[in-house]
Amino acid sequence: MTTVTSPLAGRAIGLAAVPDPVFAGAMVGPGTAIDPVREPSEAVSPVDGVIVSMHPHAFVVVDSEGRGVLTHLGIDTVQLNGEGFELLAAKGDTVTRGQAVVRWNPAAVEAAGKSPISPVVALEAGAESLFEVAESGEVKAGDHLFGWN
Question: Pseudo-torsion of CA 136, 62, 141, 104, nearest 10°?
């Protein structure tokens, strides 16, 4: 079993509320989303593992069971070309849950015309394999988001 914790402080809103049909339809995978606090912050690793994909706006950490968790900072933020994102880790790094991976400013993302809502997705998982999924309420970085059987 994998416990996935929040990479961000904010409000859990569930994937269906993400303003992007690919994420909202869980086509990338099941999970939830965070509407982050509008202040400069660090996105942290949601699990212990290895970073297998690293972009300014998104990263994937694979845990010891081979489960990949995608943290996508905002919607359509790839179009910002890394502007406003600072990488604090690199592809291939081993990270621990709660370790800072990217520094960003959700308010700046919003000011650039993009949504700062951030999906946290279990890659290559069936919806039935997730449980205790947080879809409402305030969360702090490191709080429980969902379990993955």
Answer: -110
Q: Which residues pair with 34 in a beta bridge?
A: 12, 118
Q: pLDDT of 46-62, one tens digit each?
A: 999 999 999 999 999 99
DSSP output for 39-74: S-EEEE-SSSEEEEEEETTEEEEE-TTS-EEEEE-S
Residues designated as active site: 72
- Cα–Cα–Cα angle for 42, 37, 95, rounded to 5 degrees: 25
Question: Are β-strands 94-95 and 118-122 bridged in parallel, bridged antiparallel, or unpaired?
Answer: unpaired
Q: State pLDDT tens for residues 82-122.
A: 999 999 999 999 999 999 999 999 999 999 999 999 999 99
End-to-end CA distance of the chain: 5
